[in-house]
């Protein structure tokens, strides 16, 4: 007589998270300042007018009025999780380790997408691009209907805006949600491969001076360009946004993720785990130069 055998595997299928540890490669790393409550970024004011063949003296004295961009360092916490001794006595995997991975991935991912949201400058006149390709199904959270695809011409427009702003040509990044990334790649598939660059999925070479980088999403917004909070469920008319920018025109400061544990708590009959990290991010210029949002048009 045969015996049916059963087995519990000694591993668990953990949750997936975005590759959040690449964040400081995508912007200017201000993490050395993360132990402060607020970060101020001084911006040079308008320079004086150049005089040509001047013959009138004394020349009037002027002052340059400088400005600042500022951002807060925020605390991000995940609530404590109980790991009960009785609850874990019969499982074959390390639940505490799995919960710790959730903490690391969850906080890291949230910080990254919050940074992208804070790098978005909004729809500043003459400083954004709208997609112009064929209509494809909308993929922003909660969205329905269709949105125009990202095209090569749209990327060229973004590059031209940065050129006219005198933004350096070296160090430009085109950060795209997966929807836009694959739309663009489909249109240039014979010229570009997709490669993994130490955790960043990207084109194998520059495109109109940009390193083209893929993320699951970058910024989600209403159809008027008002940014959605990270994790917002969205609405039927919502859109996705990509960012064309220079790496040194956006900032991010982040701490390590701190894991707290308290073992053998008698009132909980087990261990308690929690986690915390600190971070802040912002575009760096009061004139919004150096960042060009690419918004889906419908």
Describe it.
The radius of gyration is 24 Å and the shape is globular. It contains 4 helices and 17 strands. 17% of the residues lie in helices and 32% in strands. It has 2 domains: 20-118 and 255-283, Major capsid protein gp5 fold, CATH 3.30.2400; 126-252 and 288-295, capsid protein of prophage fold, CATH 3.30.1930. A hairpin with a 6-residue loop joins strand 10 and strand 11. The protein has 298 residues and is an alpha+beta fold.
Summarize the helices and strands and which ones pair or pack.
Elements (H helix, E strand, L loop, with lengths): L27 E2 L8 E6 L23 E6 L1 E11 H4 L6 H25 L9 E2 L4 E3 L8 E3 L3 H13 L7 E6 H10 L6 E4 L2 E4 L6 E6 L3 E3 L17 E8 L3 E5 L3 E8 L4 E14 L7 E5 L3
Parallel strand pairs: 1-14, 5-17, 8-11
Antiparallel strand pairs: 2-3, 4-16, 6-7, 8-13, 9-10, 10-11, 12-13, 13-17, 14-16, 15-16
What key attributes describe this structure?
single chain, alpha+beta, capsid protein of prophage fold, 4 helices
Q: How many helices? A: 4
| Cα shape | globular
Determine the CATH topology of the largest domain.
capsid protein of prophage fold
Task: Look at the structure and give the CATH class of the largest domain.
Answer: Alpha Beta
Short description:
This protein is an alpha+beta fold. It has helices at residues 85-88, 95-119, 152-164, 178-187, and strands at residues 28-29, 38-43, 67-72, 74-84, 129-130, 135-137, 146-148, 172-177, 194-197, 200-203, 210-215, 219-221, 239-246, 250-254, 258-265, 270-283, 291-295.
